[in-house]
Amino acid sequence: MTAQLSRTRRRMTPAASLLAAVAAGAALLGSFAPTSAQNEMQAHPAHIHEGTCDELGEVVFPLTKVSETGMMDGMMGGTPEADATPMEMGEPVGAETAFGVETSFTLVDATLEEIVEGGHAINLHQSEENIEEYIACGDIGGRIETGPGTDEGGTLVVGLGELNDSGYTGIAVLEGRGDQTEVVIYLAEGLGGGAGDHGDEEYATPTS
Predict the structure, then answer these.
(1) pTM of the prediction?
(2) Which of 5, 36, 102, 118 gives the lowest tally of CB atoms within 10 Å of its CB?
């Protein structure tokens, strides 16, 4: 664990300016949601399991909880910046009907190849209090992108499908970084219902 934090610090500390920019972006992502939706958001535990979504096995890699601040919680965990600067969410901006996006960032101690070939799935839970309720899951597999603009281990994007009528769907982006893999999760509620949560209001269909 100490070695992992040390590697994370070495990687993050030289990029302090980038972290500041990402922090602002993460705050904006959360602030796009209507205020009522923000108040209802709660952290969702997430794990990489052995097996598939149809038959989940043991947890092999715990992931940072998916939440409004999950991206920065994971990126800055164990760094001096995290201890000195509390996380704050910005005021809502833009369309009030925009979807809220919750995120997570984890640096996993396994190569992307090991995760893909080992037969794994990413599973998300409703909350710590309701850990038995699964809300979204995705089997890890697909095409690994390599080449200019990608890291040496390649990039794999995995879809996260809705479970138990939760209304949650999303994607997970896995990027190989040597002997480790970055796992970033993006999760939103209600994406299957159309452009934003408009309730019972009727909206005109754009003309072509």
Answers:
(1) 0.70
(2) 36
